[in-house]
């Protein structure tokens, strides 16, 4: 059975949609495609590939806890995986842009970080088999 449905965008909530969108613009080299007072859509520059991201202001936003430490913690609903060529350099750049490294780092070829709103995301690099 065929469907005309297509996933177009991943939306992240934050206390300030514009602030979080600006972080991901710097991190990914994306451009603003649309914006409203409480919502921003960013994506790759025209002619390049990639997934669009949107950000929505949610006044009652509570950052997730990763890894979950105790019952009742706000659980992570999803995370972004961002492939990079140079893991150490891109980790340093992400931190300079406002990310913070997670306390727990589960793999050598992945760096788990938290964006300024507290969403976990992973920088990863392909390692030779």
Automatic annotation (TrEMBL):
PANTHER family assigned to the protein according to its UniProt record, in alphabetical order: CONSERVED PROTEIN, HYPOTHETICAL FUSION PROTEIN
Protein name: VOC family protein
Lineage: Bacteria, Bacillati, Actinomycetota, Actinomycetes, Kitasatosporales
Coiled coil start-end: none
InterPro entries: Glyas_Bleomycin-R_OHBP_Dase (IPR029068), Glyoxalase_6 (IPR041581), VOC_core (IPR037523)
CDD domains according to UniProt: VOC (cd06587)
Protein origin, superkingdom: Bacteria
Residue ranges of every copy of the VOC domain listed in the record: 6-129
């Amino acid at each position: 059975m065929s469907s005309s449905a297509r996933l177009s965008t991943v939306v992240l909530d934050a206390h300030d949609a514009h602030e979080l969108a600006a972080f991901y613009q710097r991190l990914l080299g994306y451009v603003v495609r649309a914006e409203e007072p409480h919502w921003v859509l960013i994506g790759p520059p025209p002619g390049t590939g990639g997934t669009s991201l949107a950000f929505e202001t949610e006044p009652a936003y509570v950052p997730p806890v990763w890894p979950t430490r105790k019952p009742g913690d706000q659980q992570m609903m999803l995370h972004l995986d961002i492939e990079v060529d140079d893991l150490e350099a891109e980790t340093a750049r992400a931190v300079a842009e406002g990310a913070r490294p997670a306390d727990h780092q589960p793999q050598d070829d992945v760096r788990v970080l938290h964006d300024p709103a507290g969403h976990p995301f992973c920088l990863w690099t392909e390692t030779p088999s």
